[in-house]
């Protein structure tokens, strides 16, 4: 997307509502397609729209989770959903409350527009409101584009997860 076109677009972020369900399902196809193509033994190529509606409705209504949408001229062009995770103190670690971003997706036509950064800022604001001390997210090893974007937004690669298929 070129800079001239972006100047004409009004970007925004707001909490999602049930009126956004159709757009959330549509945007989910983007991230779902990438995951299914890259990891076909783990992710479904098609998700049941009714089940996705229910899934997003539960996230929107939950006390310990949330969904935000990124808009371009009032049209939904991105979303993020997250959970608030409380880990109690243990003999080894301190107690911690974090906001964990489970999904973030931007319509390809609006990538590099600032919508993902705006969603991360919204997550930071929610984290402060709920007294979380950090924001976390994870991304798949193959998703080099997302990793570069997250680092550019100030997130640091702090941990790696290893798996062995059985």
Automatic annotation (TrEMBL):
InterPro entries: Acyl_CoA_acyltransferase (IPR016181), Bact_Acetyltransf (IPR050832), GNAT_dom (IPR000182). One of its GO terms (molecular function) is acyltransferase activity, transferring groups other than amino-acyl groups. PROSITE patterns: GNAT. CDD domains: NAT_SF (cd04301). Keywords: Acyltransferase, Transferase. Pfam families: Acetyltransf_1. Residues 11-166 form the N-acetyltransferase domain. This is N-acetyltransferase domain-containing protein.
């Amino acid at each position: 997307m070129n800079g001239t076109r972006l100047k004409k677009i009004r970007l925004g972020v707001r909490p999602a509502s049930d009126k956004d369900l159709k757009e959330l399902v549509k945007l989910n196809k983007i991230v779902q397609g990438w995951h299914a193509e890259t990891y076909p033994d783990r992710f479904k190529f098609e998700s049941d729209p009714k089940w996705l509606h229910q899934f997003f409705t539960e996230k929107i209504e939950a006390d310990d989770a949330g969904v935000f949408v990124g808009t371009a001229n009032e049209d939904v062009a991105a979303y993020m959903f997250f959970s608030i995770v409380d880990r109690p103190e243990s003999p080894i670690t301190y107690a911690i409350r974090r906001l964990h971003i489970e999904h973030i997706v931007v319509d390809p036509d609006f990538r590099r527009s600032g919508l993902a950064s705006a969603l991360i800022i919204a997550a930071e604001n929610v984290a402060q409101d709920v007294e979380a001390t950090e924001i976390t997210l994870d991304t798949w090893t193959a998703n080099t584009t997302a990793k570069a974007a997250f680092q550019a937004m100030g997130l640091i690669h702090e941990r790696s997860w290893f798996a062995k298929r059985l």
